[in-house]
Amino acid sequence: MPSILWFRRDLRRHDNPALVAALDAARDDGDGTVVPLFVLDPRLCNAAGDTRRAWLSRSLHALDATLGGALVVRHGDPTLLVPEVAAAAGAASVHVAADFGPYGATRDRAVENVLAASGRRLERTGSPYAVAPGRVVKGDGTAYRVYTPFYRAWVEHGWRPPAADPDAWPDWRMDPSGPLACDGIPDAPDVDLPPVGEAAALERWDAFRIDGLAAYGELRDRADLAGTSSLSAHLRWGEIHPRTLLAELDGSPSHTVFRKEIAWREFYADVLHRAPESAHTWLDPRFAAMEHDDGPGADDRFEAWRLGRTGFPFVDAGMRQLLAEGWMHNRVRMVTASFLVKDLHLPWQRGARWFMTALRDGDLASNQQGWQWVAGSGTDAAPYFRIFNPVTQGLRFDPDGDYVRRYVPELRGLGGRSAHEPWTQGQLAPDYPDRLVDHAEERDESLARYTAIKNP
DNA sequence: TTTTGAGTTGTTCGA
DNA sequence: GTCGAACAACTCAAA
């Protein structure tokens, strides 16, 4: 009897425990046939912008190719379609990697119930994380709310080595398939992306491990250099598993810094799993009382931010990188987010929604918790008066102005670090917008608003 | 239960 | 230009 392997955010063959489980189940039933399935759920398609949908489509093509063209793609509601495919294949079990997101976990319970009505099982094996959310707990059984203690406990908990490949791949069931892209967009959208798919992810990891990892601790914050791993979108789609990365890290300082970045991804997944409502509301409920600027002009300021026209070069470069590439350097994500929340006094949810749409690596847990961290309502234990200065940050992390000039053509006439302060350079950048706000004034305004909710 | 120590990523001011 | 202190007194985990 065949089994179903339902792919979601685990678009790979190697180090895939659910695949091994699906194959074992099929063999136990005297068969070696596995039906690989992906459901293009409109709910997920509609939340993603062009670059993320393009990434998904290319990743599905790559996966389909490694499965000999056998990937079954259905368009619509998984609650209906997964049981339908299972029934049509005569499968007793559907195998997945567990989804711990608010939507995915609810959807999976619904699918599980419908399957059970016809005597079929949903089997969860593994997850997109080295340690499943909910596993790392304090002595009293509750969740960690501070990163460093979580990190220590997470390392202490440990993780499995990568899953070995099966001795033989399953006989993938060949089946007619729908288009490998969300409805309403071309099957091969015209978006400029780096190579996508499992093979590309493994190549990227190899290149980074050999050429970039040793200097990671030193260079990861530099916006003008390629000092980061660029693995975020591969991880988001499960083209590579964090176990695969962790297995090759040692105790050296740079490796430890990289391990800690992986741990942030796991921490934020844990926080969201324990507090699903924090995808939309303040993790610290006091922040619901925060005063925001939502009167006339707020929409114009939001658009200036979104389109990279705030008059602050480091902020504008980041926002234009996001528009052009569907990706932004992590350091610049913090600075642009801080600017929206603390200089424009707009709610973090608004910026988070745009990031989720535009980012090709858009991950609900990392994105929303990262925004909450910046807004002060999240898991940051530091004092609230830590407010990023967009100019100082630019001078520190793009010291020669190269990053700013790469994404803001109006500033290309300004040499070196002066590109971060065009207002001191006379008329050398006539087409570049004036500063939207006075940072020093808005900083004071933010501090006052924070004080008001901390000491009501 | 109480106490203690530490907390991703900062900024500004004045010497 | 560089350095240390002040910011304001919080939250959390563990001893």
Characterization of this structure:
This protein is mainly alpha-helical. The chain has 3 domains: 3-127, 3-Layer(aba) Sandwich (Rossmann fold); 129-162 and 198-274, Serine Threonine Protein Phosphatase 5, Tetratricopeptide repeat; 285-454, Orthogonal Bundle (DNA Cyclobutane Dipyrimidine Photolyase, subunit A, domain 3), CATH 1.10.579. Helices cover 47% and strands 6% of the residues. The protein contains 19 helices and 6 strands. It has helices at 17-28, 42-47, 50-66, 78-89, 102-117, 147-157, 198-211, 216-219, 232-236, 242-246, 253-274, 298-306, 313-325, 330-343, 348-358, 364-375, 390-397, 402-407, 439-454; strands spanning 3-7, 33-40, 72-75, 93-96, 121-124, 171-172. Strands 1, 2, 3, 4, 5 and 6 form a 6-stranded parallel β-sheet that branches. Helix 1 (17-28) links the parallel strand 1 and strand 2 (33-40). Helix 15 packs antiparallel against helix 16. The longest helix has 22 residues, at 253-274. The radius of gyration is 23 Å and the shape is globular. The model has no long low-confidence stretch (mean pLDDT 91).
